[in-house]
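debug: dumping io for the single-chain case to check the tokenizer round-trip. Nothing else runs in this session.
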Amino acid sequence: AEDIKSVLPEVVREFGAYEAPTSTGSKLVLVGLDQRVERRKKGYSANVPPDHNVVCLVEVTPVTNNNSDDAATTVSYTEQIVGIAELSWQPPDPTRNAPPFVLPYFAKDIISRFIPSNGGATNDKEDERKVPKGYVSNVLTWKSRRGLGYSRVLMAALEGIARRWGCDDIRLHVDADEVSGKVARGLYWSLGYEAVPDRGNNRVGYEWMGPSMANRGLYLVEGIPLLYLRKSLNEDVGMQ
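debug: decoded output
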């Protein structure tokens, strides 16, 4: 857990969207991430199912040590966290990100029931059941390790955990910007994630991005254009 805490400032810088790591908003993000780590460290009781998991990708590097006294050579290993990602149960609300702090599952369940029916729901009957869904957030690979397929490893781990939890689908938000979000969108689409179209009245404010964007799952989240994507896990889990 201490190793995970050491990389939290990197997550804040990448996802905090605040001017400085010392700002009040960034501190709130940092406190929330620390809360997630502590909750995972303590584990869950038998009566409370897991509802949050922080996954770290660790790169192990061999180091050769030459012993000058007896000319023996030994090999040790160094470990470095090079990626991090989170999975949690969250209300299926395409207009909101996961909060920076951890909410108990019963609170998420209550919030889910009050999400407007036009809030990105599709015509599938499954989506009419307003219950928390598996939600991916804070997928981050260190800049020096990008391009090595580590993000795919993280996503595979999260999807495996989601299946073990019994999730029937998994969801996420991704940057809608054609430049800054291009790589992440390409990753998720290649993994089978699809847009959750906006079928309600939430399109006001981003008409300038083109009429097709609404069908690509575009939503304004705290003033930022994001795509809301989902991937069905029914082929492995089955309908709940």
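debug: round-trip ok. The radius of gyration is 20 Å.
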